[in-house]
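Q: AbrB/SpoV domain-containing protein, please. Structure only.
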Amino acid sequence: MHAVAPMRRTAVTVTAKGQVTIPKQVRNPVGIGPGTAGSVVPVPADKKRPKSCFHRLRGHAGEGLSTDAIMALTRGEP
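A: Structure for AbrB/SpoV domain-containing protein:
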């Protein structure tokens, strides 16, 4: 599965067999299809969701190269 930008909360229903249908607007952006394995992370409704493991790194990389500079390097331009 792929990480994506945060989405709006989406309601799902659990069947008597314990199965959940993930809505199409959630499945498609993250590439979930038949047979895709994944995991569920329970988050209490009254608590914030867990921070990303990258939250400590935000702001440390600096501005970096512009897209034009990266493309010039890729093309071997001076």
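A: Brief note, in case it's useful. The CA atoms of residues 40 and 48 lie 16 Å apart.
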